[in-house]
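Internal ticket #5521
Category: modeling
Description: The requester needs a full-assembly model to guide mutagenesis choices. All entity lines are attached below as received. Residue total reported by intake: 1019.
Assigned to: D.W.
Attached entities:
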Amino acid sequence: MSSVFARKGARLAAGLVVAALAVTGCGSTDDGADGEKITLTVATFSDFGYEPLIKEFQATHPNITVKTRVTEFDQHHKQLATRLGAGAGTADLEAVEEGYMPQFRQSKDKFYNLADYGAKDLASQWLPWKWQQSLADNGNFVMGLGTDMGGLALCYRSDLFKAAGLPTSRDEVSALWTSWDDYFGVGTRFAASGTKAKWFDGVGNIYTAMLNQIPFGYFDTTDAYVGDTNANVKSAFDKVAAAAANPGMSAKLDPFSQQWNVGFKQGTFATLPCPSWMLGLIKDGSGPENAGKWDIAKIPGGGGNWGGSFLTVPKQGKHPKEAYELAKFLTSPESEAKIFQNVGSLPSQPETLKNPAVLGFKNEYFTNAPVGEIYAKSGESLQPNYRGTRDADVRPVFGRALARVEQGKQSAADAWAQAVSEAAKALGK
Amino acid sequence: MRGRFDRHLTPYLFVAPFFAVFAVFGAYPLLMTLWMSLHDWHLINGAGDWTGLANYTELFSDPDFWNALGNTLSLFVISTVPQLILALFLAALLNTKLRGRTFWRAGVLIPNVVSVVAVALVFAQVFGRDFGIVNWLLGLAGVDPIDWPADVWSSHLAIALIVTWRWTGYNALIYLAAMQAVPNDLYESARLDGASNWRAFWTVTVPMIRPTILFTTVVSTIGGLQLFAEPLLFESKGASTGTGGSDRQYQTITMYLYEKGFTLFDAGYAATIAWVLFLVVALIALVNFALVRRAVASR
Amino acid sequence: MTTTALPQTHRRRSGASTTGSGRLRPFIYLLLTAIIAASAFPLYWTFVVASSDNSAIGEATPPLVPGGNLFDNISRVFDSSEFGLALTNSAIVATTVAVGNVLFASMAGFAFARLKFRGRNALLVTVIGTMMVPTQLGIIPLYLLTTDLGWTGHLQALIVPALVSAFGVFWMRQAVEEAVPKELVEAAFVDGCSLVRVYWHVALPAIRPAAAVLGLFMFMGAWNDFFWPLVVLNPENPTVQVALSVLASGYYTDYALMLTGALLGVLPVLGVFLLLARQIVGGIMAGAVKG
């Protein structure tokens, strides 16, 4: 109570000084009453392919004007957090990426519960795990409607495979492994062949992919911290750490760094786990001279997902009903199919994944791999992966531990021990 | 009458705009930050429980804070000192009779305006482990490739180089402006006394711009201790969390503040870091001011 | 009116002679050329990537030869963001901030350096103290405040808080101390000049180099600031840095597009550099009395 009063008081005092400075008063923007024309704003962090769909929506809703805002990924989420905290400035629809969802779930009171607008009737529209990810409060609270997803596959350089005496066609390569142990085993063979290239790009991507394949990681489904005891986490950590310690295995590159880009073009590594949205990155990094050298195989360890977003409706918006209508429209199976065709975002809905246009899609740069089919299969077969509400507090801690092993600064056991104690500290235990 | 009013009141009117704007847009956020630091404050959800000084006691026993403080001081020393000395000489060069004076002066400021993205990309290539120019040169001398961001000393050295690259020209222009106010006759009499250029630089230029040297010392101390943009460039795009490497080896205090406040949404703790940083900066700026005043005076 | 009593001895401008002797000249030019080359390389490199396609960034060493895609990339920049508006907005913000700072800081600096008034030292210490405040966290309260004022999304949210700076006041006070002799100010008073006139006709001309540098820095700072504009503005009414963030959006960065934006964004600043760097010349009053 007193804090609210003090804050208001201080702001009031500050406001008076400003008034005394006699600066031009600029009111906030208008908002129409019911039945009048209203404006909805959609804020995203990349091209979600919404422009043509918005035109469609406006044609059927003459009273609604839709505007879009696009900002860089990281900045988009930090800006959203700041504006939610300040109580003003959010758009009517805000995209939130999967990795950020748990953090925003802690602030669900700042969002409308879409269940109040009938979102639960749409549940069957999405793959079950995608729907699960949008829920809070034991399934009573629907935070947002799912947009795309990032099914996992494994990208590999067939030319480097050939040089190392490994099979090159995607079916044969997929047959090389079912588990990650198989994958690292093939890697040892690859490294032993005397090639200069390494087996994978770096520990970051592999570990992320492995964590995204287990039912839960650092937190169990009741949101209790189990990072130090979960055998699945420890096993993934140990496998990656062991591989990182083998000099022929890791190219020791930070994902998304400039050196990583260079690694693509110079062919310094042969494989990496690649969610659907990463194909563009690989293509740009590798450049036209490496066209046809990359191909896509099955990911070891079963299907998995990395990435994908949700459309949320922050409570600051004055037109939740209309905003929900728009979100519903933008995430409908018909819209997702169109988006896939326009910008290639992988749909997160079973019906759309069976759409021939999606299934038949091939990517020329990746040796004409049937990416639609590969990713659809990967997405359908995966099990839900629960991310705890405080996942962001501990996930980086374990990632850094693996980086230390990769950099040769620590043994796997020491790195793990340090990570466990840092995680406990981060969670205030 | 008018004169009295003028001489007594006008000075206040002269300083009023600064204080008026500061009162609103500077003091209020500062006090608000203090208030936040006394609470369990979530970036989005706002004020939680009143915790008194709990955030402060936690901070003082937080090894990550001391680590960040150590990194900040190390980076500050190895980037600020060379940068100011180089700037002084660069200013002396720019202060000579040059053809295309404007061009040279504008040129030294370029590092300060080039987009941070471009700077990050170029320096990633310069300090690349596998294909970087620096490692290539070291390779010629038989040195093994260095993974620059991986270790404390190498990351600090590389960051210091980036900071020096970005800010030397900036400080040089400050010195240049001060040198322009040095009366020419002082140089003429020095020359009549048979002083060399080098000697004139030390006996005329440096003492004459002494207040400016003190000024840059204070300003660079403040800026150096709040170092943020340059070390952040060293983090890869996918992981710009402000952690500063796999073992926090180049995390500065402002990066720690950023990590807590904007990556982990712990605004209360971040506010505490901000206030402690404020006090640290004040203390060190004061010490530095005293030190440099004596050093320059003894010349 | 009667400023004529001021000693108007025009001295030769300083800065002519510290290291001017003949043998050193080629060496100085060589050194400066090397410094400028190192300074400008990332800028040149921005141009190279801006004129190439995106795959140029995968090269092991920075590419040195420009490609042929510059105009394509430029038109893409204008298609994918409000870049024209962004340039205009940035120009408005940076110019206002620069002018405001030079004016207010030189007024305050003059007062602190050459006028006597009660509480002067305490106020000066306060000014310097405010420089030490880390800005990052002030963002949230500042945002609350601008929201209350209804400024969110408008340029005044960038301009007004930045109109003054402690750095500027401190810097101008320094400049006045060094370039405006006490005797000159006293002489002007004896002559019956008002404070405002002394400030305008005596102090301001003498500190022109310092004022130009301050204007330059403030213009640059306002132009490059990105954290605060990103929080408070929206992409429909952006500054250059906000527009660049729009260009960088996406799961992966289109560096060619992004650096084309960066290149277009930096050119106006270079223009301002050349304009203001010319002003960094010895004040005509310097040494007028001391000499």
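Resolution: model delivered.
Comment from assignee: Residues 16-68 of chain C form one domain.
Ticket closed.
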